[in-house]
Specification:
The chain is α/β, with parallel strands linked by helices. The chain is built from 14 helices and 20 strands. It has a nine-stranded mixed β-sheet with strand order 7-6-5-8-1-9-19-2-20, with helices on both faces. A four-stranded antiparallel β-sheet has the order 12-13-15-14. It is globular.
């Protein structure tokens, strides 16, 4: 019986992995005995929705999910956190497998909480509220997990890094726990597909990249944490080895990531720029940095004079205040495309403090996606090609932010992740994250369906 095990490593980067391979015997052996290529992520290259894009073969526009948080309507109330109901119209690979009488074991995949019935077993991933929630299918599986490892850790925040040693311990503990559950699950049930996602690499990168990367503006070569990322990968390599030891013979092994990593240089306060350009009007400028949602809630945004506003995060989201669409919209629909080009050109022209180009890219949903469902941003901005974050707060009195003001963490995402296949993948060159679903179906000899 053919089986496939997909081990997902959130944020694993091809350049970093090649740098560390000499220290990683398990991953090095997999690369040498199989194939190793870059895996192009989706736009935007973010954990949610990227993993579910991988599992469904659909891009964010087709899914109608553009990040961890999305607009649920055209009001000004801000963005809402996504859960599995946002993907209810898509068919993830495990649903396809169940139609063919195949079983899946799913562990920690982002976008799966709350759990839905599956032919097999599911343990939900990040954004699960906590160990008290119903996080397994079948529900009785929760009791087994609690018996195996105690309270299950779904994720670790890499934002609060005041105690770096404690954070390292938490991330290592999360990883060890997840692989312990993985070993028990694959050993206790029949399955055709095993798929797991480990968040540890992403959390280590965001928190410790400046310690690792000698070219990072905040790098300290004498930092006691300069080898924290290397040490974590050695630990991770050993955990992967222990999992491989209990997999059935002739299991096809795939190791993939949803995106890569790069150093974070700074932040662009998108709403400060929109104010300067005359697109966003306030009744009162805040005395300290304040979220645009809070300003709106306090009635301090002059929507009748505002054509656009933005949101912060790994990438910039710009929303237009369109007449007949937003409650107090002022942009005539006939002027929509003109405003889109005007703001896109202005954003791409933003320079750094010294007048150098940031190489910012602006995407338009209508051309970036096969379809546009849900409520997409009117523009997506990759400041500095994602080497700069988007800052949504107002009150800085400047557009460029550095250091701690540039947002949490010292790294941002990069568009290419990793794809390792054993046996070797027949194709050469980069692969796309949207191909993985078909690769799995092909290996399991199930006809690939396309809509």
């Amino acid at each position: 019986m053919k089986r496939l095990a997909l081990i997902g490593l959130d944020c694993a980067d091809p350049r970093l992995l090649r740098e560390l391979l000499p220290e990683l015997p398990t991953l090095r052996e997999l690369v040498e005995s199989g194939s190793f290529t870059r895996l192009r992520s989706v736009d935007p290259p973010i954990t949610v929705p990227a993993w579910m894009c991988m599992m469904t073969g659909k891009d964010p526009g087709q899914l109608g999910v553009y990040g961890f948080r999305n607009r649920l309507d055209h009001s000004y109330e801000g963005l809402q956190i996504v859960n599995s109901t946002a993907f209810s119209d898509a068919q993830p690979i495990w649903d396809t497998l169940s139609l063919h009488g195949r079983r899946s074991i799913l562990l920690g995949i982002p976008g799966t909480y709350p759990p839905r019935p599956v032919a097999g077993q599911m343990v939900t991933g990040p954004l699960t509220p906590g160990p008290g929630a119903a996080f397994t299918y079948p529900p009785t599986l929760k009791e087994n997990i609690q018996r195996w490892v105690g309270d299950f850790v779904f994720d670790v925040s890499a934002i609060e890094t005041e105690d770096e040693s404690n954070l390292i311990d938490k991330i290592h503990g999360m990883t060890a726990q997840r692989f312990e559950v993985a070993r028990r699950l694959v050993s206790s049930d029949e399955w055709d597909l095993f798929a797991m996602v480990e968040m540890g690499p992403d959390r280590m990168h965001h928190a410790f990249w400046s310690h690792h990367d000698p070219l990072h503006p905040n790098h300290d070569p004498m930092s006691p944490y300069r080898d924290a990322i290397r040490a974590y990968y050695r630990f991770l390599d050993a955990e992967i080895s222990s999992l491989l030891e209990v997999l059935p013979d002739n299991t096809h092994i795939c190791i993939a990531s949803d995106h890569g990593v790069q150093r974070l240089k700074g932040g662009i306060a998108i709403n400060e720029w929109l104010i300067r350009e005359g697109h966003l009007a306030l009744k009162e400028y805040p005395a300290e940095p304040t979220r645009i949602e809070d300003l709106a809630e306090r009635g301090l945004v002059e929507w009748d004079k505002t054509t656009a506003w933005g949101a912060g995060g790994y990438y910039g989201r710009i929303f237009f205040n369109v007449a007949g669409r937003e409650p107090r919209g002022v942009v005539p629909p006939a002027r929509y495309s003109v405003l889109q080009e005007e703001i896109a050109a202005g954003i791409e022209a933003i320079q750094d403090e010294n007048g150098a180009s940031l190489r910012t890219r602006v995407l338009r949903p209508s051309t970036a996606y096969r379809a546009v469902r849900g409520i997409a941003p009117d523009l997506l901005a990759y400041f500095g090609d994602l080497s700069w974050r988007s800052i949504g707060t107002v009150g800085w009195n400047r557009v460029h932010l550095r250091g701690e003001n540039a947002g949490p963490g010292t790294a941002n995402h990069a568009p290419y992740g990793i794809y390792i296949s054993v046996p070797a993948d027949a194709a050469t060159g980069d692969r796309s994250i949207l191909e993985i679903r078909d690769i799995i179906l092909g290996h399991l000899e199930i006809e690939r369906d396309h809509d």
